């Protein structure tokens, strides 16, 4: 980012040709660390995801995570 320029908001969708309406165009995930717990009886999936991501080329003022219908307890 050049001196004096403001952060930008990332694109709401990805440029990925496989899933063009999903994701976010302002950053790329480099690593996913997943801990999953699935219980077949109640059909319950719980887990924890840690993402390692980089923005570029611009500095982001915000971005979106595409979590679909999942219920999220918190984002840090």
Report on this structure:
This protein has about 80 residues and is mainly beta. It is about 0% helix and about 40% strand. It has a two-stranded parallel sheet with strand order 1-4. The protein has a two-stranded antiparallel sheet with strand order 2-3. The protein is elongated, with a radius of gyration of 16 Å. The mean pLDDT is about 80.
Low-confidence segments, given as residue ranges, are none
Helix content: under 10%
Largest sheet: 2 strands, parallel
Strand order of the largest sheet: 1-4
- The proportion of strand residues reads 35-45%
Distance between the termini: 25 Å
Bulk shape: elongated
Cα-atom Rg, whole angstroms?
Answer: 16 Å
What is the succession of H and E elements? EEEE
Tally of alpha and pi helices = 0
- SS-derived structural category: mainly beta
Mean pLDDT: 78
Annotation, overall tally of beta strands: 4
Tags for this model:
single chain; 76 residues; mainly beta; two-stranded parallel sheet; two-stranded antiparallel ribbon; 4 strands
Lay out the secondary structure.
Elements: E1 8-9, E2 27-39, E3 44-55, E4 60-62
Parallel strand pairs: 1-4
Antiparallel strand pairs: 2-3
């Amino acid at each position: 980012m050049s001196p004096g320029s403001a952060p930008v908001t990332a694109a709401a969708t990805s440029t990925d040709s496989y899933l063009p309406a999903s994701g976010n165009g302002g950053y790329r995930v480099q690593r996913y660390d997943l801990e999953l717990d699935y219980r077949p009886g109640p059909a319950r999936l719980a887990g924890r995801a840690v993402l390692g991501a980089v923005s570029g080329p611009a500095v982001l003022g915000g971005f979106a995570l595409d979590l679909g219908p999942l219920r999220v307890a918190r984002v840090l």
